[in-house]
Design a protein that fits this description.
This protein is an alpha+beta fold and about 160 residues long. About 45% of the residues lie in helices and about 15% in strands. Helix 3 runs parallel beside helix 4.
Length: about 160
């Protein structure tokens, strides 16, 4: 009984009046498009790691240039990178140069991790000295952390522009 009333209402009250017919078609098209778009968005995998850093489809490593306190999944780097981020945040906009340290931050080799940590610590100390030493020179120094691409370190999967 209920289905019969609904069908009658659709046929006589909605479909027979041209404006309502077009409005119903437009609504159906909009709902279909929204459902398709929503389904596609839900099916996408979030491959971002941090601002400026992504995970290419063929790799589990994050590549790109980080200007935030992102540690590339290496907890040993976190303290130094947070210190660099604090230095970066104290700089006046447009009054500093950016120095990039290109290292394999996502490596799992213990020797490489230690080497990278020491180089990162040295870069922080150089940045700190440049920003705090009383030279009264500008610009001061900011740092970013690019990591080589998984394509042999060619940098083809990230850009600095």
């Amino acid at each position: 009984m209920m289905a019969g009333r609904l069908w009658r209402w659709l046929r006589e009250d909605v479909w027979e009046i041209p404006f309502r017919r077009y409005a119903a078609l437009l609504l159906a098209a909009a709902l279909t498009a929204a459902a398709v778009w929503g389904g596609l968005r839900l099916g996408e995998q979030d491959r971002s790691c941090a601002k400026g850093v992504t995970r290419p489809g063929n790799s589990d490593d994050c590549v790109g240039v980080s200007v935030t306190a992102y540690d590339f999944g290496q907890p040993r780097f976190a303290q130094v990178i947070r210190a660099v981020d604090r230095e970066n945040r104290r700089l006046a906009a447009g009054r500093y140069v950016t120095v990039a340290l290109l290292e394999p931050f996502t490596t799992s080799d213990p020797d490489s991790v230690n080497d990278t940590l020491h180089e990162l610590q040295g870069a922080y100390l150089a940045q700190y000295r440049a920003n705090h030493e009383a030279t009264h020179e500008t610009p001061t120094s900011g740092s970013s952390w690019p990591t080589p691409a998984a394509t042999g370190g060619t940098g083809r999967t990230w850009s600095t522009g």
